Amino acid sequence: MSEYQVIARKWRPQRFSDVVGQEHVVKTLKNAIRQRRTAHAYLFVGPRGIGKTTTARIFAKALNCEAPEDGEPCCECKSCVSIADENNIDVIEIDAASQNSVDNIRDLREEVLHMPINCRYKIYIIDEVHMLSKSAWNALLKTVEEPPAHVKFIFATTEVHMVLPTIISRCQRFDLKPISSGLISDRLTEIAAAEKVKISHAAINAIARAADGGMRDAQSLLDQMIAFFSGDNKEISEEQVLSLFGLTGSGDLIKMTAAMFNNDRGGVIASIHSKAVKGKNLETLFSDILNYLRGVQLCQLLSNPEAVLESDPESIKRFRELGANVNPDVIQILMENLSSVGRVLHDAINKQVFLKTVLLKAMRAAHSVKISDLLARLNSLRKAGELKFLEQIPAAEKAPPKTIVEMVETLPEAPEPEAVPEAVPPEPELSFDPMPEPEPARDEFTPNSLWQQIIKFVKSDNVVDPTIIHYMNEGNPESFENSLLTVIFYEEFDSEHYAAVKKIMPSIHKGIQAITGDWAAAVDLIHKHGVRSIHKKVEHEIPEPEPEELALDSGVAGEVQEGAPEPDEDRVNSVIGDKAIVDEVKKKPIVSDSLDLFGGTIVDIHG
Is there a contact between 292 and 284 (Cβ–Cβ < 8 Å)? Predict the structure, then answer.
């Protein structure tokens, strides 16, 4: 009974035509053999299991083949058979991971001087060459640069950045790429048919996806599935493959991706929890999610995504169905937020919590409202005619501002003071009618004119009680800044008037917005203490007067004559109190502004 040989070794390619997914390397090497233009050193670079060592062996067979056929080894001559059986003494394979000392390289340097025994060339295949020490590289440097004519070096590495640049510059470099899932599936289907193994197409696709671009890994996984599930002569199913390797099925991936597109946070959380409970590999799940997002995006952007995705037609169809009604910006933002967290997920202690967090964060960013969305919505409403009410709002009439000359000409003449007896000449009391304010331009409103226009607007609305219109005239406009009109109601007026005006604030806001044309404009009503409060406050704060400091008018003030009667204390306090009240009232902005404008004085205050 012959010893069982694993699929990876049994189905190892023996010709260039058997190599899958490395056509760019195979074509170059075949041309070099055909034209007899082979270099003295080659460097094969790429991840594990994609065919670096296998390609090196085929190339060694072709170099020493006694009857090559169009650059291909015949696989029948003595040299080809011995290389395939791994007993050719002229083809030496070295594992640099275990033979990396300078002494090993010195022995090799002496061996290369000897001629080959049975073949045309003595070929050294050094695998994992990046494991050589720096001193070993230095010992080999001169030999690699100028080897004997009968020697060829073929280096293979997965970590090319660890190889000395001086070595790379002396070699012809070939970068082998990961093999697509479609090519791996085709190869596994061929092997399964030859081995008479019953396995579903979905199971083969799951194995190809788990192999992550490595043909050797895919064949080893197929071998493992055969050993686990083929004993009862039943077909190996996708569920068995997924359960064994901790993978997620395509159906679950479609549901999770659709939940992300629909901003279904609960669905995403439930899916991740379900996979974690079943022992699924969350890192592989994250990688599969990214692949699905990429597939959907490319199907939206390209007319022939098959050339880029290298996926089977069934997968392309799924991607197109997933992205049929999805905004491309949502997919782009999801990928931007997720593509950079793979390594962090690998190092995370609690991968389930971390994966949930990053997915929810990406979904929040992808589905948040953008300014462009708002503008698009407004444009659609405008085109549908739903914003026509904006054009129906009456605009405030614009009046050209009056010149200074026109303002002066409209001032009424001051009345002549009445005649009084010469014995008691009273001080003339100046009285001016207020200067009519010019009608402001639309964007040059004064607080007073704007408040008067608002009162007119509310009155014309015929909704508000006319009594409240009268109450509005009790307000004192103070300022109009940053689209906010401040109106003060002093306590001299009834507080119920202020409360009544507050109740019609919607009409007031409607008025200021229509008059100014500014939809952010508003009115702020403030209830303040007035002159009455000042009068009471000053009465309580009047200090006791000193007789020698009294300076009162009308015979009460003046020097105190010897023998004169004492001044009336009530009269003194009254006069001092009135003066203090006057000083306090003058501090009020509206009072001081009025006095400055008309050049008047305060004659009396009634508290």
Answer: no
